[in-house]
Amino acid sequence: MKNIYKLLGLFILVSSTYSCGKDDLNLAPLSQIGDNAFYQNDEEIEGAVIAIYDGLQEVPMREFALTEMRSDNAKSKSREGDWAQFESFSVKSTNVAIVNYWRANYNVIFRANVVLKNIEVVQDGAKKNQYAAEARFVRALSHFNLVRAYGDVPLLDKVVTPTDSDYAAYLAKTPAADVLTFIQTDLEFAAANLPSKASASFGRATMAAAQGLLAKVYLTQGNYTAAQPLLTQLVANNQYALQATYSDVFYSEKNNEILFAIPYTNDDVNESQDFSFEMTQGGQVSGLNFVTDDLAGAIDPADVERKPVLINPLDTKANAKFLTTSGNARLCGNDWIVLRLADVLLLHAEAIMAGQSETASVAAIKSYNLVRARVGLSTLPENGTAKLTKQMLMDERRIELAFENHRLYDLIRFGEAQNVLSIYATNTAVSFSPTDLLLPIPQAEINVSGGALLQNPGY
User: Fold this and answer.
1) Which residues pair with 322 in a beta bridge?
2) How does strand 290-291 pair with strand 336-340?
3) What is the pTM of this model?
4) Residue pLDDT, tens place only, 408-454
5) Rounded distance, CA 406 to CA 301, Å?
6) What is d(CA 255, CA 242) in angstroms, rounded to the nearest whole number?
7) pLDDT mean over 80-99
8) Are the C-beta atoms of 280 and 318 separated by less than 8 Å?
């Protein structure tokens, strides 16, 4: 974490990264100036807000390895190197991907805390609340990424530097339950102060995005009572709608199904990503997040709309969800969708089911049916005679949201991870244990913490 706290590094980042993917988030570059002369007005704080989103672009780069490739959905092309550790549930604390993911998320949190530290200079009250809400939304998202991946993690609620008296305390782990409570508080503030979709630029946080993420946090805590009204409100929000065609969700960007996405731009060395290349093409060795036989076998033969989006018809081992249109195959502009309406609809059904094995709720069945009807699959009667089971809901989430980094956390949230992944590990001749549900804390971070940061069990 040492790199997170170096103020000089932050000054360079903030003064040189004031664009974020799409034109909607672009601001004119600011000249490099010292911290003592910075954050003096509304414009400079908005620049720092945009820098948060810019930092967020790093988070999805290899997130799929930590999520999809640690589930029954995805694998590497060659089972070689650090990448093979994910599919074999043998991740080492020196794995480059887990180190980079840790640092990317804490960099985002650091940038958010810089905004919140200086927010009082904003003169316009409405802007002040919005900028604070954006910072707290993204800070919550990154803490949520971390706590789900690593379990107990350091909680950073302010800018901390090595010269601060409480520096060492901030390097130590905070219990996951406390981190989730902190995330909840950030998102409650964000939901109350962010603008609606109609009043926000694409790629910036909105009220609905905060509500959706908050509902997912509640579900992660097992708080179905708190999650359900938020999800009911989102389902009824007429600013959002399922795309008529499944492929349009991913290839007609800025569409009305998306609650929050991280934007990228084709063929831009600063604003592109290469996860699309790795997921859909890859080299002879580097192909990652490819389709497992288990996932391919789970797709209903009647699901003719989703299957060619999930599996490339030209290479049935390859993912097809993020095929690029860029001139340079490694400078891709496919946006990363963090939260969309189909996810919300299935979360709505999950909240109503409330941890039980089934529900006859018509409202839950309607939400489930909307997702299936969009792709022409059979639906359940909506007259109170049918039952939606937990297995049906898990299966639908698996296919609808495949390769969007939800599967592992869905299995954990439904209480089925140990059972499903143990069977999958046996079938693929690898070893799995319950401690594999959390990643190891990066050894480099343990080293610089001076012993304050402890390794997770099993590593």
Assistant:
1) none
2) unpaired
3) 0.93
4) 999 999 999 999 999 999 999 999 999 999 999 999 999 999 989 99
5) 23
6) 9
7) 95
8) yes
Q: Angle at Cα 191 formed by Cα 188 and Cα 192, nearest 5°? A: 90
Give me 132's structure tokens.
Answer: 């604070």
SS3 content of the chain, % helix, strand, coil (to 5): 50, 5, 40
Q: Which two tokens stand for residue 206?
A: 């909105």
**Among 12-26, 113-127, 204-218, 441-455, which stretch is predicted with the lowest mean pLDDT?**
12-26
The pLDDT score that the predictor gives to residue 4 is: 35
Distance of alpha carbon 201 from alpha carbon 254, whole angstroms:
10
Measured distance between the N- and C-terminal CA atoms of the chain, rounded to whole angstroms: 19
Tell me how far apart the alpha carbons of residues 352 and 133 are, in angstroms, rounded to a whole number: 28
Q: Classify residue 158 by burial, with Cβ atoms within 10 Å: 0-12, 13-18, 19+.
A: exposed
Q: Are 263 and 335 in contact (CB under 8 A)?
A: yes
Query: CB of 295 within 8 A of CB of 402?
Result: yes
Helix (H, G, I), strand (E, B) or coil at 298: helix
Question: CA-CA distance, 228 to 189, in Å (whole number)?
Answer: 18
* Confidence grade of residue 36 (pLDDT, cut at 50, 70, 90): low
pLDDT number for residue 12: 32
Determine the length of the chain. Answer: 459
Tokens at residue 300, please? Answer: 């209903």
212/195 Cα distance (integer angstroms): 14
